[in-house]
């Protein structure tokens, strides 16, 4: 029976790594993974990092950092616990 697992991330890069892990290690089809703001506001995470920072000053850029990022995927029960652990290990809560 299919089950939806999800994790929320403070940093966009952590969410991206979680998706990468689900696809590469668990052979989950990328098109079945949803990445979205965890709230109603558009966001790039809570903590600016990488592309979210100004390249010259290192200061937070103009990316909206007002909320967390949710990664969700619906998988078979056989994979659900491992997929949930992959999200946890990518620093999701």
UniProtKB/TrEMBL annotation:
Residues 39-70 are annotated as: Disordered. It comes from the Bacteria. This is Uncharacterized protein.
């Amino acid at each position: 029976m299919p089950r939806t697992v999800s994790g929320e991330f403070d940093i966009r890069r952590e969410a991206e790594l979680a998706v990468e892990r689900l696809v590469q290690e668990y052979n989950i089809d990328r098109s079945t993974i949803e990445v979205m703001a965890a709230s109603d506001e558009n966001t790039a995470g809570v903590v600016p990092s990488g592309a979210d920072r100004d390249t010259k000053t290192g200061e937070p850029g103009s990316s909206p950092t007002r909320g967390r990022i949710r990664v969700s995927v619906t998988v078979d029960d056989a994979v659900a616990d491992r997929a949930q652990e992959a999200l946890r290990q990518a620093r999701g809560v």
